[in-house]
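Closing statement on the glycinamide ribonucleotide sub-project.
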Amino acid sequence: MSGAQPFRIKVLISGSGTNLQAIIDAVAQGAIAGQITEVISNRPGVRGLERAQAAGIRTTVLDHRRAPSREEYDRELAGHIEATGADLIVLAGFMRILSDGFVEQFMGRLINIHPSLLPAYRGLHTHARAIAAGESEAGCSVHYVIPELDAGPVIAQAAVSIEAEETEASLQAKVQAMEHQLYPQVVGWIAEGRVEMREGMVWMDDSPLSAPPCLRAEDNA
Ligand code: GAR
């Protein structure tokens, strides 16, 4: 596709950026047909910014503590994204609730990874809550973002089993290992045009998705 614009991905982070790293690696290996054109963090000095810099990716810090309100911050963030251009905005541990105006502006180009098997366990402390409830499985979901928190249509999931001696930390480590497989795969599908959101639903290979595909930890064994 000589002369065609590369598919432009912006990754938004707040912290360690291990999912960002997985996406950086997948782009470097040619598994994602696109370019990470920028990494934006709402927190200065985080490890994810170092990962981006080490990969030669432009970084921007938009510190939320300097904004007078959530709406003001989101307007600044949206203005920056529109001015610099993005085909896909990937939330990778971006720990902020986005205002409805922001989400509506980018809906269909905005995805998130959430550490639960949605629609179960929206919000925070998902792993501790799953263990406390006696669940036998936990996991993560990649979904399109809509104004309602963690409620957008799910593109794909990955599941792990919860063992008898499971702790929040051990479960988080297992789920994160799956996140690092799942997120680059979904970004790759979107970059290839295989997945999109139409009328509030996920379409894959030109058919509406009736149930999201689910990767299982045992599949790797
Ligand atoms: C990930 O585990 C992701 O699922 C979670 O934050 C972590 C970021 O890790 N996201 C949420 O909880 C969103 N509600 P990372 O910075 O190492 O990629």
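The helical segments are 18-28, 47-54, 70-84, 100-106, 126-132, 168-191. With this model delivered, the sub-project is considered complete and its resources will be redirected to Aim 3.
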